[in-house]
């Protein structure tokens, strides 16, 4: 008899595992969380809540429903905000599918932002790989004005947008884990994704990647632009980088995988034209450091492979060896000049490096105490850094032979 009682009790224990389960239609999935400064020290929180029925086979006759709902309210923190929101949201709010945290740059420039990021580590439902996006306008306004056309489901839009801009190097890879790791390391600068829905009235004329979000002159489509990065020092935003500067940081950074970058350089034979090339890093950077003397030095060798995609001047760089050598040397010089100018800017303006150079530098010290005594953050502005780009020219596209315009005119 006792054996049956024990068996009965074990069955009851297993059956109790679903007592707190929630059906999909009973939960409100926040896919984007907006953070702004509220009044009197409060936090203004914006939820973009996905409608799981829109865009799915199970939507049935709900074709007229919106794909998401956006609500904004003030609270003390975004953890307790979930219960507060149930005063006007019928379903249980959850962060389990939270993909991005969008923060207004005014809030990112305060100490409150670092505290908020540490709050995320306490909440079990917020993943460490949640992406961090920083905006020129308030996050609430950004979410309201962001109207993707091709992607009706908001989580797919942010997934595709951040993935593609990461691949092209227009914005850096940025998430909670990386932010906290760099902030606690107190040696390097963190780069966050920069975006905006506000287009500047007088857009500057520049090359393809020399912009910040909102500066690209465009018409039609979704007003949102992802380009550039927000720079953080010790957990607080201190400045911004353009898309070009962000790409230069990625070339120097060995902790991130750089995909192929398509950009242009002046044509060495006809400088009124620009040659389109694809930059690829085939191997890791090589470092030579001397950090023990009075004048610490760092030499960086960067192997780059380029494919020539477009030559508007129609000069023959593929078959004329002299022209090919001239093109390679011209791009090497231009890239080295850009990198050196960027490094000097980070030394003088930011007083820190946004490409994790300290990870290579700490290898030069025998003990942790020696590395800490060197004080990388304060020593970086005084480092003498040189860059050597070793470029290899790969392909010249499908058609190698260059047409002769004079023959065509005849």
Question: What can you tell me about this protein's structure?
Answer:
The chain has 410 residues and is of the alpha/beta class. It has helices at 2-15, 81-84, 105-108, 111-120, 139-145, 154-168, 176-185, 243-252, 321-350, 358-361, 368-374, 376-379, 405-409, and strands at 27-37, 43-50, 68-75, 92-94, 100-104, 131-135, 190-196, 225-233, 236-241, 261-266, 274-280, 286-290, 297-310, 384-393. The protein folds into two domains: 21-259, no CATH class; 261-410, Nutrient germinant receptor protein C, domain 3 (GMP Synthetase, Chain A, domain 3), CATH 3.30.300. It has 13 helices and 14 strands. The strands form two sheets. Strands 1, 2, 3, 4, 5, 6, 7, 8 and 9 form a nine-stranded mixed sheet that branches. Strands 10, 11, 12, 13 and 14 form a five-stranded mixed sheet that branches. The protein is globular and about 85 Å long. The model has no long low-confidence stretch (mean pLDDT 86).
Level of helix content?
25-40%
End-to-end Cα distance, whole Å, is 107 Å
Helices and strands: which structural class? Answer: alpha/beta
Q: Give the number of DSSP strands.
A: 14
Give the uncertain stretches in residue-range form.
none
Rg, rounded, reads: 26 Å
Please tally the helical runs, counting DSSP H or I stretches of 4 or more residues: 13
How much β-strand is present in the residues?
25-35%
Average pLDDT level: 86
Shape call: globular
Topology as a string of helices (H) and strands (E): HEEEHEEHHEHHHEEEHEEEEHHHHEH
Main sheet properties: 9 strands, mixed
- Number of spatially distinct domains: 2
């Amino acid at each position: 008899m006792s054996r049956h009682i024990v068996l009965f009790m074990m069955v009851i224990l297993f059956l109790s595992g679903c007592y707190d389960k929630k059906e999909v239609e009973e939960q409100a999935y926040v896919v984007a969380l907006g953070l702004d400064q509220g009044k009197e020290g409060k936090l203004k929180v914006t939820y973009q809540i996905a409608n799981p029925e829109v865009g799915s086979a199970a939507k049935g006759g709900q074709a007229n429903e919106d794909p998401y709902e956006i609500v904004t309210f003030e609270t003390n923190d975004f953890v307790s905000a979930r219960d507060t929101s149930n005063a006007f949201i019928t379903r249980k709010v959850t962060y389990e599918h939270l993909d991005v945290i969008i923060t207004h740059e005014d809030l990112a420039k305060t100490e409150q932002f670092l505290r908020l990021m540490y709050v995320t580590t306490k909440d079990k439902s917020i993943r460490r790989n949640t992406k961090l996006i920083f905006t020129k306008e308030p996050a609430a306004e950004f979410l309201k004005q962001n109207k993707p056309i091709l992607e009706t489901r908001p989580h797919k839009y942010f997934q595709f947008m951040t993935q593609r801009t990461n691949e092209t190097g227009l914005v850096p890879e940025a998430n909670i884990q990386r932010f906290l790791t760099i902030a606690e390391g107190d040696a390097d600068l963190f780069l966050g994704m920069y975006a905006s829905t506000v287009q500047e009235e007088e857009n500057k004329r520049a090359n393809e990647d020399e912009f910040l979000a909102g500066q690209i002159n465009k018409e039609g489509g979704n007003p949102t632009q992802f380009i550039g990065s927000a720079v953080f020092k010790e957990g607080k935003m201190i400045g911004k980088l353009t898309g070009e500067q962000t790409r230069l940081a990625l070339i120097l950074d060995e902790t991130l995988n750089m995909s192929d970058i398509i950009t242009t350089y002046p044509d060495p034979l006809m400088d009124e034209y620009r040659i389109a090339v694809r930059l690829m890093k085939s191997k890791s950077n090589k470092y030579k450091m001397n950090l023990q003397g009075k004048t610490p030095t760092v030499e960086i060798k960067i192997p780059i492979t380029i494919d020539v995609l477009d030559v508007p001047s129609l000069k023959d760089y593929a078959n004329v060896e002299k022209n090919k050598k001239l093109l390679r040397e011209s791009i090497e010089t231009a890239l080295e000049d850009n990198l050196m100018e960027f490094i000097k800017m980070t030394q003088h303006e930011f007083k820190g490096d946004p490409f994790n150079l300290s990870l290579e530098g700490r290898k030069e010290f025998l003990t942790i105490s020696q590395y800490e005594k060197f004080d990388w953050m304060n020593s970086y502005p005084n480092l003498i850094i040189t860059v050597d780009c070793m470029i290899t020219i790969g392909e010249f596209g499908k058609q190698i032979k260059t047409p002769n315009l004079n023959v065509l005119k005849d």
